[in-house]
Amino acid sequence: MLLFGFKRTVYGLYGDQGSLSIQGPSRFRVPLDSGFSVPKSMSHKFHFTLADDDPDVLFLAHTAIEEFYPGSSFASFSNAEDALQHILATPTDILITNHGMGVMSGTELIATLRQRGFKLPIIMVSGHNDNEEEAKKVGADLFLPKSASYVPLVNAIKSLLPPS
Questions:
Q1: Residue 127 and residue 18: Cα distance in Å, rounded?
Q2: What is the 3-state secondary structure (H, E, C) of 71-107?
Q3: Is domain 41-160 annotated with CATH 1.10.443.10?
Q4: pTM of the complete model
Q5: Where are the alpha helices (DSSP H) in the chain?
Q6: What is the pLDDT along the chain (164 residues), one digit of tens a residue?
Q7: Contact call for residues 108 and 135 (beta carbons, < 8 A)
Q8: For a tag site, which of 13, 34, 117, 126 has the least CB within 10 Å?
């Protein structure tokens, strides 16, 4: 078990060859259930950009994704403006963004990238299912409701990135 802290909260990372669990406060208990296996090696190293105004969500998403894409790079941002500047300056293979983040929304971020001709896969994650239509209209490849499980997110990533 690996213990790590974030914003005065201690999380435990438990794993074996076939599963991973991230445990923290009861609202953040995140089992990655049996449909998953941690790959022994990955030939592709991907560049992930994550945007969410909740630092706990960023941390847990990064940790869960990294288990399945070891050696990949991660850039995490608490607002869409910084994520946009990063993507404009640095190659990224996939963007995972929240909807509401302040001045610029995730939807505006997606629209801006698509208007500039970016073809990268984009997943929008939101706690409000009514944002799905708007996200897809501006060019999100997939929309996922926020949940306590990161299984749907990792499966969505696997569906959008080339196989290893």
A1: 29
A2: CCEEEEECCHHHHHHHHHHCCCCEEEEECCCCCCCHH
A3: no
A4: 0.73
A5: 55-68, 80-89, 106-115, 132-138, 151-160
A6: 333 433 334 344 444 433 344 444 433 333 444 344 444 444 468 999 999 988 888 898 898 889 888 889 999 999 999 999 999 999 899 999 988 877 889 999 999 999 999 999 999 998 888 888 888 999 999 999 887 678 888 889 999 987 65
A7: no
A8: 117
Q: Indicate the domain borders of the chain.
A: 41-160
The two three-digit tokens of residue 80, written as one number: 């869409």
Q: Are 156 and 122 in contact (CB under 8 A)?
A: no
User: What phi and psi values does residue 119 have, to the nearest 5 degrees?
Assistant: -105, 5
Q: If DSSP codes are grouped into helix, strand and coil, which group holds residue 119?
A: coil
